[in-house]
Amino acid sequence: QVQLVESGGGLVPAGGSLRLSCAASGRTFSNNNMGWFRQAPGKEREFVAAINGSGGGTAYADSVKGRFTISRDNAKNTLYLQLNSLKPEDTAVYYCAVDLTYYTGTYLSEAYYEYSYWGQGTQVTVSS
């Protein structure tokens, strides 16, 4: 049974940092793109960042570019998101996800409906 378990969320002041982790079990995803999404109360789930299987290709939402960094350790079957210079508007539940589609080239999907496996989410709250 495939499981994705996020951790590392919490309450931080504006300007602070957090590192989120997403541990996968049940199968390996070293050949799959993975991503982070977030959802704030009353808002739709939005794309944050994505990374290809090797870790050599990444994509970010404009709102987090330069502040967040996505990475992965395939030996540990774990995905990471480093969040720096946090703002109150970054407050949301953060989810990791796996895209099971195999693409040619360097395409990284930003559409939540193209991701098949999801974690339960971890809450990030940034105080002003």
Structural description of this entry:
- This protein has 128 residues and is mainly beta.
- The chain is built from no helices and 11 strands.
- The strands form 2 sheets. Strands 2, 4, 5, 6, 9, 10 and 11 form a 7-stranded mixed beta sheet that branches.
- The radius of gyration is 14 Å and the shape is globular.
Low-confidence stretches: none
Task: Please give the alpha-carbon distance between the first and last residues.
Answer: 40 Å
Proportion of residues in extended strands: over 45%
> Could you say which overall geometry the principal axes of the C-alpha atoms support?
globular
Q: Estimate the mean pLDDT confidence.
A: 96
Radius of gyration: 14 Å
The helix/strand class is mainly beta
Q: Element order, helices and strands?
A: EEEEEEEEEEE
Task: Compile the SSE list and pairings.
Layout: E1 3-7, E2 10-13, E3 18-25, E4 33-39, E5 46-51, E6 58-60, E7 68-73, E8 78-83, E9 92-99, E10 117-118, E11 122-127
Parallel strand pairs: 2-11
Antiparallel strand pairs: 1-3, 3-8, 4-5, 4-9, 5-6, 7-8, 9-10, 9-11
